Amino acid sequence: MSGDQRHVYQGSDWPEYEDVLVGNREGLETLRIAIDEAIENGDSRIHMGEFVGVRCLETSFFESQKNGNTRGSRIAFTLIGLAFIATVVIVWLAASS
Description:
Strand content: 5-15%
Largest sheet: 2 strands, antiparallel
Low-confidence stretches: none
Distance between the termini: 77 Å
Mean pLDDT: 86
Number of strands: 4
């Protein structure tokens, strides 16, 4: 089967499909094979559409990513808030003198 016949894409390019994977029959059948291979062996390097493979990760990977992003976001928002407050105080002091 030629790679040109297998189409699998993130649907984000099309508003009506933005939350799903889209593909033709050949692409989705190849994806199914790649998923089965990844579940068995940990990953698959079967190319389909814009994807170069499938990898099976442990649940702990996603849990650690979720927690890491939340902590980083809190730090970033705190720093932005502090910078905003400092700017307001400096502008207020400059305007009142």
